[in-house]
Each structure stands twice: as structure tokens, then as C-alpha cells.
UniProtKB/TrEMBL annotation:
Cross-referenced InterPro entries: G3P_acylTferase_PlsY (IPR003811)
Keyword set, alphabetical order: Cell membrane, Lipid biosynthesis, Lipid metabolism, Membrane, Phospholipid biosynthesis, Phospholipid metabolism, Transferase, Transmembrane, Transmembrane helix
Any one Gene Ontology BP term: phospholipid biosynthetic process
GO CC annotations on file: plasma membrane
GO molecular function term, any single one: acyl-phosphate glycerol-3-phosphate acyltransferase activity
Stated name of the protein: Glycerol-3-phosphate acyltransferase
One Pfam family matching this protein: G3P_acyltransf
Domain of life of the native organism: Bacteria
Transmembrane regions: 30-50, 71-90, 125-150, 162-180
Amino acid sequence: MVGSGQRGSAPVETSTLRIGQGGPSCKNGAVGYLVLAYLLGSLVAGLLLFPEVRGRDLPGGSGVFRRKGPLASALVVLFDLGKGALAASLTPLEWRPLAGAAVVAGHNWPLFFRFRGGGGIAPSLGFFLVWFPGETLAAAGVGLWVAGLYHALYWRLRRRGIYPIPFGAAFGYLAFLLLVPEGGRLGAALVAALVALRGVQILRGRW
Ligand SMILES: O=P(O)(O)OC[C@H](O)CO
């Protein structure tokens, strides 16, 4: 997207995000946005609302579904989507790539829960739904479709290995990286890397 410059003056180019433009006060402001995003991410719904899940299962939608049922799971997913969406809404465009990483880092390694949180899927979905709604919905569709297929062809029969949602999500993030416009690629790559890193930790039993 290209911003409309004022008539008679040089057009204002907004198509490329340039992180760190501006003086020291701008950078100080950015630290505030990133800390806020990290703290928002650290409010892990599954751990706040259902502390009994802690240590027994993952605190995201799937883990809470397994332990507490569908309504509790829906509540957790909505809360975690919401904090991601709020972080995107509060952060100016130029700092959004880092704010996306910050809110997901908070959810995955929360300050309030000894740095042991969820997988980062719901907050990243909420964050990018605000920033790139069409691309995010399309990528989420890919992820859900792959998860459904994996469930039907493998998980339903074996119940072993990677759970369907994270399995499908890996394809969703790949789709998103291909679909997202240039201005969002850095943010998408940072977030996907943090989700993948946490996924490796979880697979190794370090959750
Ligand atoms: O990645 P989270 O913590 O948002 O959890 C989402 C789902 O439970 C993953 O299976």
C-alpha cells in the first residue's frame, strides 16, 4: 500500500516498513509498545482462568479443551486471540513486526508464570487478524484444513505424535508467509520462528 502524499509535495511512501526510523524519543516510545505487548502476551488465559491445568497440559485452547471441555477452551482461545488483537491495535505500524514477536514471546515465555506458557498460535492469529485480516483468514483456513485431514487420516487412528492443531498450524504459517504483503513479512517470519521454537521445546517435553 502506498500512502497518499499531500498535493504539491513529495508523496509519502508507506509501502515499506522501516523499523527504527525516527529519533531517540521515537525509539523510547517503541520500547513502551514492545514491553506492553510482551506483558499483554504474558496474560496466558489458560493459566489465569484455569490454574489447575498448569503442569498437567498445555494452557492453550487444545490443552484446556482436553482438561476442561469446549466452553473453557473457547473462552481461552477468545482471550488469547483478543490480547494479540489488542497488541496490534495499540502499536503503530512501524513497530508492529517487533510487537507481534513481543506478544507471542510473552505468551510462550510469560513473565507471570515462570516463563512457561503456551505455543503462541492464538495470540499470533489475533495479532495478524487485525493487521492483515484477509491473508490471516486464508492461512487459518489452510491450517484448519490440514489439521482436519491429519486428524482424519492419522491422529484418529494412532493418537500419537504431534497434535492436529499444531500440525495444521505449521502449514498455516507457511501459507501466511507466502500470502502476506512485503510490509508484514518480517513480522510473520519473527512470529513463525518463535512459535516453531516453542514447538520444539514442547516436543522435547520442556513445557
Ligand atoms: O498456541 P496456543 O497456546 O495459543 O494454543 C493453541 C492450541 O491449543 C494449540 O494446540
